[in-house]
Amino acid sequence: MADHRAEAALRQPPPERVASSGRTASTQGVEYLRLTGVHAFYGESHILHGVDLTVNRGEVVTLLGRNGAGRTTTLKSILGLVGRRSGSIMINGREAVTLPPHRIAQLGVGYCPEERGIFASLSCEENLLLPPRVASSGMELAEIYAMFPNLKERASSPGTRLSGGEQQMLAVARILRTGAQLLLLDEISEGLAPVVVQALARTIRMLREKGLTIVMVEQNFRFAAPLADRFYVMEHGRIIEGFAAAELPSKAGFLHQVLGV
């Protein structure tokens, strides 16, 4: 059943965007990620059927669609975490479609999977320190703890003792320490309390202001709508629509039909 509060959000004008030091005129509109004709397979299953999309430096772009539309596979294709892929995946001017996942990570791509990937036998801080840095721009522990005070309080707690919200914060914080400039976030709000979701939204706004480029997959439209600069709608492994945040109110009928929101 449609969420009437989500429909109301669609009818509201998008929040005013405020330029920051991380999003200067010299970086706005500069292409950072481009997928052209991307096909992806798991074994004999053909999941993506010629995906085309672009993401500019410093943008937040959200992939919308029902379960099974191909959104998570799109993120995994960028990283090379599918059985087979073809087409073109340009990351900051570098063709990545033939590169293995570890080389793609070294290009400055960070992935926060839906399952989070927290190591239960390691402490919160050990989980945080585990991934290697790929760039000198990676955040220091003090900066991460300032952004996520809960993680500082739970620094010595094992992964199994962290709440779902704390695990999600840790999963996001872990990739920030690496220095990745392109963040791929998969359903980071799923199953979390509203207060935690609000904290994650504040974090994404802060990262956007720092100039990081973010691609999100989100089922929670009320969470994603105020954060994104642009949206792509996926269906059956294809992009069927793309539009800017300013067009969101005019797309209410279309999104209700396609997504049920």
Can you walk through the features of this model?
The protein has one domain: P-loop containing nucleotide triphosphate hydrolases (Rossmann fold, 3-Layer(aba) Sandwich). It contains ten helices and ten strands. The chain has helices spanning 4-11, 71-79, 101-106, 124-129, 141-147, 149-153, 164-178, 194-209, 221-224, 252-259, and strands at 31-42, 45-56, 60-64, 84-91, 94-95, 109-112, 182-186, 213-217, 230-235, 238-244. The strands form two sheets. The chain has a six-stranded mixed sheet with strand order 6-7-8-3-9-10, sandwiched between helices.
Short description:
This protein is α/β, with parallel strands linked by helices and 261 residues long. The chain is built from 10 helices and 10 strands.
Summarize this structure as a short list of keywords or feature phrases.
10 strands, disordered N terminus, 4-stranded antiparallel sheet, single chain, Rossmann fold
Radius of gyration: 18 Å
Q: Based on the structure, what is the oligomeric state of the protein chains? A: single chain
Find the CATH superfamily: P-loop containing nucleotide triphosphate hydrolases
The CATH architecture classification is: 3-Layer(aba) Sandwich
Q: What is the total number of structural domains?
A: 1
The CATH topology comes to: Rossmann fold
CATH class: Alpha Beta
What share of residues is helical?
A: 25-40%
Uncertain residue segments: 1-27
Distance between the termini: 8 Å
What is the arithmetic mean of pLDDT? 87
Strand order of the largest sheet: 6-7-8-3-9-10
Strand proportion: 25-35%
Please summarize the sheet with the most strands: 6 strands, mixed
Shape: globular
Following the backbone from N to C, one meets helices and strands in this order, namely: HEEEHEEHEHHHHEHEHEEH
Number of helices: 10
Number of strands: 10
Structural class: alpha/beta
